[in-house]
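Practice problem 4.
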């Protein structure tokens, strides 16, 4: 039993570390791109470009939030990616952009498994009712 718990904890830690690593790489790449190319003026962009810009802002906000709140951050990343996919249906599978939903899913899986583990320990079902 203790061995199984250790494997679960190791898997959870690995999952969180992978999600944080991917999120950090994405965040740094977007920030370096923004400083290298300059942050665009959202009011000078076309509607589709402005939606794309704000979807990246939403995804970056989700990555930042996921460092503390894995579930909420992962959900925000996926919502931002969904907005990006709706605004740019042909460019959804660009390599860097496709890492965003993977990172969001990893954060959500980590949160869900962690909540499932703690929820079962916090609220044990009592059959004495």
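Answer key:
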């Amino acid at each position: 039993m203790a061995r199984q718990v250790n494997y679960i904890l190791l898997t959870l830690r690995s999952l969180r570390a992978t999600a944080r690593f991917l999120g950090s790489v994405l965040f740094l790449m977007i920030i370096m791109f923004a400083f290298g190319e300059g942050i665009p003026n959202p009011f000078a962009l076309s509607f589709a470009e402005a939606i794309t810009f704000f979807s990246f802002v939403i995804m970056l906000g989700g990555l930042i939030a996921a460092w503390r709140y894995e579930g909420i951050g992962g959900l925000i990343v996926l919502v931002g990616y969904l907005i990006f996919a709706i605004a740019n249906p042909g460019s959804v599978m660009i390599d860097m952009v496709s890492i965003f939903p993977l990172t969001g899913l990893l954060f959500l899986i980590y949160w869900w498994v962690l909540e499932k583990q703690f929820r079962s320990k916090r609220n044990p079902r009592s059959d004495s009712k």
